[in-house]
Amino acid sequence: MAETAGSSLISSWPASEAAWERTKASLPGGVSTGLRAAMPPHPLFFEGGQGSRLTDLDGNSYLDYVLGWGPVILGHGHPGLTEAVAAQLPHGATYGAGHLLEAEAAEMIIDRVPGAERVLWSNTGSEAAQIALRLARGTTGRHRFVKFGGHYHGWTDAMLIGYRTGPDADLGRGSLGQPVQALDDVAVSPWGDLGAVAELLRSRDYAAVFCEPVLCNSGVLAPPEGFLAELRRLCDETGTVLVFDEVITGFRMGRGGAAERYGVQPDLVTLAKAVAGGFPLAAIAGKADILERTTSGIVHAGTYNGNPVVLAAAKATLQALNEPGVYETFERHGLALGEGLGASLAAHGVVGTVHQVGPVAQCIIGVEQSATFEDFLGADQEFYNRLLVQMLRRGVFALPGGRWYISTAHTDDDIAQTVTVFDESLAATLAEGPPPVIQR
């Protein structure tokens, strides 16, 4: 019998456990991406979703705040999205040639993203970041680039330097197999420290600065007042290409993403998660004189780039996000969720911080204050994982690490119910002990 949020507790997930045992015989760790193996108490397997809910193989229903790790911005099975994709499928999956959907979807992005003059289609955020770097190098004639600690720009060798920690964390590498030479490509600067990044850029040795304009991957840390504008000025002064990684923030934190929200125009913007409502699509938008270089010496290729199925999904997604009231509702729901989680921590005497920007929130437990990436690293993730299991038992599906995504399908009642479940789950987690480890 299916469970719903707030109903009787789910005690176990036998069908998911059986599915996981089966997939471990054919997939490394039984999952298609290693991050999913970290989902407590073990990876769950789902049969489908509708709106703000997912249903697992055992028939349990959950309010979903994972949303495919971000892309499902319209919720599951959105009618306009599914109809657009279904209408395209009989006409073929890809042509290896041009079609009008390429321009129609690109025009919608140019209309929304400040400063965008051209759009380059790709398939994933990692690919988008890689071609953005190549474009910056080809434009400036420089090789190295600057990024910020904790910012994620995909899993390629140079981009993974300085992201969280890993087996070679003392060297700044996040994965075994990353070549030591990748360290020569990048300088990692503290997020929000203008003096540090200014000192790097004034050497005029860097092709680009990459940043998440809101550090969503490591704490949902908004930029300090004026930081992005000053970063823009420094890049102009030193001839450095400014790249906003809006894989998460794009079309989520405003109609024109974080560039619109904070009033700063980068040279290039990478987009992915929200752009096609869950279908695999990425884009690089920005200045024509940079992006046009892919026709005169800078190689950008990809068999699946701009295929009509995902661009039909992109058009439908952007049309839905353009409906009146979407972003006002995102702000209201994000604020209600963030304030609700924070109030629950306070009511139970749990040390922690909740950050929220638009429809993305971050719950950081065990840290008295959390203003930096280093603060975020001090969170008690073991306690939070136990809390996640208690929420699962009560029908709420959320990410490890503390990040929450909200879709257009979530309702006021969903948010209120989720806050109640979080409060009940926090009480249950404290009762099973031990309490969070506090970082001072």
Question: Can you put this structure into words, describing what you see?
Answer:
- There is one protein chain.
- With 440 residues, the protein is α/β, with parallel strands linked by helices.
- It folds into 2 domains: 14-77 and 325-432, Alpha-Beta Complex (Aspartate Aminotransferase, domain 1); 79-321, Aspartate Aminotransferase, domain 2 (3-Layer(aba) Sandwich).
- It has 13 helices and 14 strands.
- The protein has helices spanning 14-23, 79-88, 100-112, 125-140, 194-201, 227-238, 257-262, 288-291, 308-321, 326-347, 373-377, 381-393, 412-432, and strands spanning 46-50, 53-56, 61-64, 118-122, 144-148, 186-189, 206-211, 241-246, 268-271, 282-286, 352-357, 360-365, 396-397, 403-405.
- The strands form 3 sheets. A 7-stranded mixed β-sheet has the order 4-10-9-8-7-5-6, with helices on both faces. A 4-stranded mixed β-sheet has the order 1-2-3-13. It has a 3-stranded antiparallel β-sheet with strand order 11-12-14.
- Strand 1 (46-50) and strand 2 (53-56) form a beta hairpin.
- Helix 3 (100-112) packs parallel to helix 9.
- The longest helix has 22 residues, at 326-347.
- The chain is globular.
- Residues 1-6 have low confidence and may be disordered.
